[in-house]
Amino acid sequence: MRHVLLPIEEATRCLVHSSNPLQLVNETRNLVKSVRTLPATCAVYAYTSWVSYIFCEYEIAADLVQKRWEIEKEMERKNEFYRFVAFWDGLIFVSMERKTEQDKWASCALNALSHLKHYVEDGLSNTEHKILLLEAEMARNQGEIETASSKFKLAAVAASKNELIQEEAITNERAADFFLSQGDSQAFQYYSEAHRLYLQW
Fold first, then answer.
1. How far apart are CA 4 and CA 2, in angstroms?
2. What is the DSSP code (8-state) at residue 183?
3. Each residue of 110-126: pLDDT tens digit?
4. CA–CA gap between residue 153 and residue 134 (Å, rounded)
5. Do residues 35 and 5 make contact, with C-beta atoms less than 8 angstroms apart?
6. Of 126 and 137, which is predicted with more confidence?
7. What separation, in Å, do the N-terminal and C-terminal C-alpha atoms of the chain show?
8. Rg (Cα) of the chain, in Å, rounded?
9. Average confidence score pLDDT of the chain
10. CB-based contact 44:28 (threshold 8 Å)
């Protein structure tokens, strides 16, 4: 059981105590060596990619996602963990698209969004805000400002209903970043809410 919880513990420790992305990469390498199973290795890459995303280290996050994909190819059974990582993968990909302007990241984000929508059809709850946030980020990247604005607002409302504090915080932060980029004073409201939620988390 310890090898299952270790990735979560290490990712949390990095999130709380680390401000150096290179340290995070080194710690991830060390952690991968210590886990015993392919699913646990996937979990290491998933959790540390999320931490990298939160620190805005999008290249590191994308690299970790791709490493996780390589491990998943070796697994005999489909990794059910993916239904939880599609959201974070999508956020990483839209951020990479915005940063690099490479179309491949838009395609990856669209694929992650497709997976999320499929999981909704399968009855997975707590997904509406994830879909709305990814749609908002994708609209932002396409220059569809009004659509992005509407989707960011809807995502924040939906996230508040799901009681997933960390995802509600991320949703409000992403909305705030968008409104700030547009010179919109609504950014303050969303940053304030994100700050409150991060403290609560």
1. 5
2. T
3. 999 998 888 777 666 67
4. 12
5. no
6. 137
7. 24
8. 17
9. 84
10. yes
